[in-house]
Amino acid sequence: MTEKLARDGGTPVRTTPFPTWPVWDGVDEKAILEALRSGVWGRNTGSQVVEFEEEFAAFQGTKYCIALVNGTCALELGLRVLDVEFGDEVICPSYTFVATPAAPLFLGAIPVFADIDPATFELDPASVEAAITPRTKAIIPVHIAGQPPDMDGILTVAKKHNLRVLEDAAQAHGASWHGQGVGGVGDLGSFSFQSSKNLNCGEGGAICTNDQELAELTWSVMNVGRLREGAWYQHERLGWNYRLSEFHGALLRAQLTRVPEQMEQREANARYLDTHLAEIPGITPQHRPAEVTGHAHHLYMLRYDKAAFGGNDRAAFIKALSAEGIPCSPGYDWPCHEQNAVKNSVKEILQKLGRTDNPLDRPLPNTDRIAHEEGVWLPQSALLASQDDMRQIVGAVAKVQRAFSMERAAERV
Ligand SMILES: *Cc1c(COP(=O)(O)O)cnc(C)c1O
Fold it and tell me: What is the pLDDT of residues 161-170, one digit of tens each?
């Protein structure tokens, strides 16, 4: 006898909700009220955003941080600062949020997708190298779930072929590679402070770097082409207004004070899940190489092998696990190379260039498998629960595994 699944009317493993997101208290209220009462609401004359930039740079271990309106604009601005232009190619994963390939497209450049390593879900340097052409200008490694990909491998390829590296660290606040905070590993790193992210102010973003010249250029393009020491109406280059408001700066400063403790808690819980979920047949947690000295755990990712679950597909697993009271999702089940936004925009640029080949035809077997069949995510907020709660996650996955594999056994009789 196995326990009846909640999906089939059995008792769920858990009925109490997991922690909600975002987290705030009187500290955040006070910060926002102070910004309001100061009467200085814009960064040009305020101090909140500037102080946040210093604090976040220190947190990431980078020399510079430039705050801006969101992660999508940060990626676009980052590529612009790295001189990506019409007709260039930028290599990135397809297993990412659409903003990653949208960034080169905004500039008339073509995103060329490289495949991921199925063990880590992260960009594979060998696949990056195979995607390089004479038009390649830059690489965007994405720290999906808050774990950097093999940055040694990616930087080696970049150096060999003289390419720039823009890290998409939208999910990776506090993550590090060999002890260097992300954002300072490549030429530039872009961050998001959108409401779901581990550090958030509703909507916001930043670029971090160790390169002074790139930092000055980033600041200028963020601020309508002004110079830090220039006159108010002096515009040296074309720039957007991507300035963040003082309310956002104040809230980010308050939120940042909690991040180290939240990271520690997610780390302990993720380590627990890594050990215990791996004992369940058909479940393989994201592999974490030793070089990943800091993992932000924006997501907890694992691979689902239906063969060990009586042949039931991922959708059935997600449904059954959700019914047991565990928040989970199939994640990026619609990879970027299948998105019309990307396909049609690439086609338009190729036409303008008179190109008859299509870089989107490159096969991405690992991305397809993870996106369509095997990838499963738990949200970062679930990792802010207690270790007892983690035990329930493991218990629920094990319960579904037993029931699903028994189902098949029963059918065979
Ligand atoms: C959230 C996210 C972005 C975009 O950031 P926004 O602030 O939402 O514009 C870009 N890349 C990745 C990987 C993300 O997760």
Answer: 999 999 999 9
Q: Which atom of ligand 1 is nearest to the CA of 298?
A: 15
**The model's pTM:** 0.97
Residue range 112-143, pLDDT digits in tens:
999 999 999 999 999 999 999 999 999 999 99
Indicate which residue's Cα is closest to atom 14 of ligand 1: 170
Q: What is the pLDDT of residue 105?
A: 98
Reference 239, options 103, 68, 99; nearest CA is: 68
Query: Is the distance from the beta carbon of residue 198 to the nearest atom of ligand 1 less than 6 Å?
Result: no
Model confidence band, residue 313 (pLDDT cutoffs 50, 70, 90): very high
Q: Is 171 in the pocket of ligand 1 (CB under 6 A)?
A: yes
In the three-class reduction of DSSP (H, G, I as helix; E, B as strand; rest coil), residue 205 is classed as strand
- Taking residues 178-197, what's their average pLDDT? 98
What spacing in Å lies between the alpha carbon of 79 and ligand 1's midpoint?
A: 15
Beta bridge partners of 209: 64
Ligand 1 in reach of 390 Cβ (< 6 A): no
CA 345 to chain centre: 23
Among protein residues, the one with the nearest Cα to ligand 1's atom 2 is: 170
All residues at 6 or more sequence positions from 402 whose CB lies less than 8 Å from its CB, including other chains: 2, 3
Enter the tokens of residue 244: 């963040």
* 367-393 residue pLDDT tens: 999 999 999 999 999 999 999 999 999
Residue 141 CA to ligand 1 centre (angstroms):
13
List the end-to-end C-alpha distance of the chain, in Å, as a whole number: 15
Centre of ligand 1 to C-alpha 197, Å, is 9
Q: Which residues contact 296 (CB under 8 A, 6 or more apart)?
A: 143, 145, 146, 147, 171, 172, 173, 174, 175, 198, 263, 266
With a 6 Å cutoff on the Cβ, whether 99 touches ligand 1 is yes
Cα 392 to averaged position of ligand 1 atoms, centre (Å): 30
